[in-house]
Recover the amino acids of this structure.
């Protein structure tokens, strides 16, 4: 007679889990489904000029100039690196240059 079915028993964990879900659903529902008090906007019948004064061509031109400048700087770095490598290979192996301590 003291036997209880598993369906009749609810553990404390299940109770706290269900309670937590209820609290969470109450807390999240206003943030997920905000109710706006604003009215619908009426369509504007007047055509207004564009807000920006820059034309797409000027934006494209500036972008092209920036790219060209980057390419030029990159090319200069590469050439300088190649020049340093050539200097390193032109020195004989085992050659160390003495630091200049004064005028002789």
């Amino acid at each position: 007679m003291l036997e209880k079915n598993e369906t009749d028993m609810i553990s404390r964990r299940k109770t706290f889990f269900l309670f937590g879900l209820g609290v969470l659903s109450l807390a999240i529902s206003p943030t997920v489904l905000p109710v706006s008090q604003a009215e619908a906007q009426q369509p504007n019948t007047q055509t207004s000029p564009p807000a920006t004064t820059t034309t797409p061509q000027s934006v494209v031109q500036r972008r092209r100039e920036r790219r060209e400048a980057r390419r030029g700087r990159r090319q200069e770095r590469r050439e300088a690196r190649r020049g340093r490598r050539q200097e390193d290979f032109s020195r004989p192996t085992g050659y160390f240059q003495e630091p200049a301590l004064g005028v002789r």
